[in-house]
């Protein structure tokens, strides 16, 4: 008796894991593919093609009024399905109604506002927020830091497998060296506590668990900001201590912004924006800032020039006389 073929969404998960995409990407892609199938009354994607994709994307733009980035995310998920799972060529370009891209300027805090917020954050979430501003990291990059990624001697942080599956080096602020060392002492005691109870394993990327069988319990591979509790790994089923959840940092930041009375929409990513803008204000070259942020194109970094004191083409307002 031949084994039953795997369900389509399970095949999608297998293909995503083969490409070493993150678990969040896996959840997002599977979610969009499921919505696409339900939109077409549970018709199998093999029986559909460009016309059905166009209809779904148009529905998202016209009826759901999603942003351009959200529509592009759905499109990427469907392209992955057809190209990587079904091995089906979609032929000509998809001529769906596209959501209008928004040209927004990022929220940037002043240095005084940053100090006001940082003075109100504590413990691990507070230390994460300080690293986001001091090193220009994205939230997930900060949460996924391993012990071996902190180079205290060279005062630098190695950001591995960042957006676009690339790595980069950025600065480690001198003011965070002592707090991080003290924090790691606590983390090491927590790790030893787990080892003593038969745990202490941590998720390793790619095939490192097979290549180095005991590396998942090694100190250097532990997360710098581990979760307060152990949980079951959704992929392997093993009970491990994952990194701190992003919601913990977001709640801490929200409370600090409220206490500081700052009338701006502040997110964790705002500190990355502020990092770049303040470096440019201090006279650093935009190419240097581009490398620290990990932008492929300098045009992406150029957006931060909008808040510089020398912005506005040097024009003086008539109201100022």
TrEMBL record:
Database matches in Pfam families: Phage_int_SAM_4 (PF13495), Phage_integrase (PF00589)
Key words of the record: DNA integration, DNA recombination, DNA-binding
Organism, as annotated: Halomicronema hongdechloris C2206
Transmembrane segments: none
GO terms, molecular function: DNA binding
Protein name as annotated: Integrase/recombinase
Gene: int_2
Domain Core-binding (CB): 1-86
Gene3D superfamilies: 1.10.150.130, Intergrase catalytic core (1.10.443.10)
């Amino acid at each position: 008796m031949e084994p039953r073929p795997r369900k389509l969404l399970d095949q999608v998960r297998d293909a995503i894991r083969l490409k070493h995409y993150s678990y969040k990407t896996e959840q997002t892609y599977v979610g969009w593919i499921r919505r696409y199938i339900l939109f077409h009354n549970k018709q199998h994607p093999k029986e559909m093609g460009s016309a059905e994709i166009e209809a779904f994307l148009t529905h998202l733009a016209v009826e759901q009024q999603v942003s351009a980035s959200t529509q592009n995310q759905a499109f990427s998920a469907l392209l992955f399905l057809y190209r990587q799972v079904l091995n089906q060529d979609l032929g000509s370009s998809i001529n769906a109604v596209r959501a209008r891209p928004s040209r927004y300027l990022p929220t940037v805090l002043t240095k005084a506002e940053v100090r006001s917020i940082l003075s109100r954050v504590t413990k691990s979430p507070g230390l994460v927020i300080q690293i986001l501003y001091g090193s220009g990291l994205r939230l997930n990059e900060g949460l996924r830091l391993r012990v071996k990624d902190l180079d205290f001697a060279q005062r630098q942080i190695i950001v591995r497998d960042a957006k676009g599956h690339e790595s980069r080096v950025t600065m480690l602020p001198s003011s965070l060296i002592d707090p991080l060392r003290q924090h790691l002492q606590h983390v090491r005691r927590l790790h030893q506590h787990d080892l003593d109870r038969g745990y202490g394993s941590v998720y390793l990327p790619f095939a490192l668990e097979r290549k180095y069988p005991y590396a998942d319990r090694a100190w250097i591979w532990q997360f710098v900001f581990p979760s307060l509790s152990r949980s079951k790994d959704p992929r392997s089923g093993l009970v491990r201590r994952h990194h701190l959840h992003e919601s913990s940092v977001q709640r801490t930041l929200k409370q600090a912004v409220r206490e500081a009375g700052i009338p701006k929409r502040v997110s964790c990513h705002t500190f990355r924006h502020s990092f770049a803008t303040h470096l440019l204000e201090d006279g650093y070259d935009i190419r240097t800032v581009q490398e620290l942020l990990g932008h492929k194109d300098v045009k992406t970094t150029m957006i931060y020039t909008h808040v510089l004191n020398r912005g506005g083409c040097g024009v003086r307002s008539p109201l100022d006389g």
